[in-house]
Write a structure and sequence with these properties.
alpha+beta, 5 helices, 23% helix, globular, binds tetradecanoyl-COA, fatty acid metabolism, apoptosis, cell projection, EC 3.1.2.2
């Protein structure tokens, strides 16, 4: 089946406000699940990214590129850079108060990202149209106003928590639901849409 390719919201769609219960700017959003490759503390080989809430529906994520993230010698692997962007963009759902999954993600690599550098990723929501969440992100090298190295555009789709329960391997889903923080987040989304 052919899919629309546009990652731009329809012209009448405006950037949304954060949900009233969204944490204020400056708040560090913890890991959403300890086994997550992007942010989980228990994921041995993961990126362990940390994300802070920005103004409006936006977040800031830092990716410190280490020797374990190489593609070419001394340079970050493009797939891992895309992963860091997916993680940052995925966190926007928490400010909109809806669990959401990536449907489409396009990454533009503008400059090589060397090992030892920090990528400052700023991600924001450009619009919400029904279940569709249009999001953008830019990653700058070594400073908040550093040169642009990577840009991304994405379409996320809001899903219910049943998406994860139905599709995830039962062992991990069960273990995640035993974590009071995950359970609390799931309940908050369910009772306070
Ligand atoms: C228990 C622990 C919980 C922890 C929670 C943590 C959450 C955070 C995790 C964060 C981790 C980081 C993030 C991650 O890594 S998320 C992991 C990577 N993503 C996935 O695994 C998602 C896999 N895909 C799906 O599950 C389904 O395809 C989804 C749910 C996305 C849509 O299937 P669904 O049956 O629901 O919807 P639909 O097919 O009727 O489509 C609806 C509309 O959308 C349009 N459309 C669809 N696809 C595309 C596309 N590719 N391009 C353009 N448009 C697309 C479509 O045309 C239609 O438009 P319209 O005709 O209405 O105009």
């Amino acid at each position: 089946m052919s899919r629309p390719t546009s990652l731009t919201p329809p012209p009448d769609v405006k950037a949304p406000d954060p949900h009233p219960s969204a944490p204020p700017p400056g708040t560090e959003l913890g890991e959403h699940y300890d086994g997550c490759f992007g942010c989980g503390e228990e994921q041995e080989n993961g990126l362990r990214l940390r994300t802070r809430v920005g103004e409006g529906v936006s977040v800031d994520t830092e990716f410190v590129v280490g020797p374990g993230h190489q593609g070419a010698p001394g340079l970050a692997h493009g797939g891992l850079l895309t992963c860091a962007f997916d993680e940052a963009l995925g966190m926007l759902g928490f400010l909109l108060h809806t669990p959401a999954v990536t449907a489409r993600l396009e990454t533009d690599f503008r400059r090589p990202v060397p090992v030892g550098s920090t990528l400052y990723i700023h991600a924001w929501c450009a619009g919400v149209d029904g279940r569709k969440i249009y999001a953008k992100a830019v990653g700058r090298l070594d400073a908040l106003d550093g040169p642009v190295a990577v840009e991304a555009s994405a379409l996320f789709l809001s899903v219910g928590f049943e998406h994860f329960v139905e599709h995830g391997r039962p062992e991990e889903v069960r273990r995640a639901m035993e974590n009071p923080d995950v359970l609390k987040a799931a309940r908050a989304f369910e009772v306070n849409p």
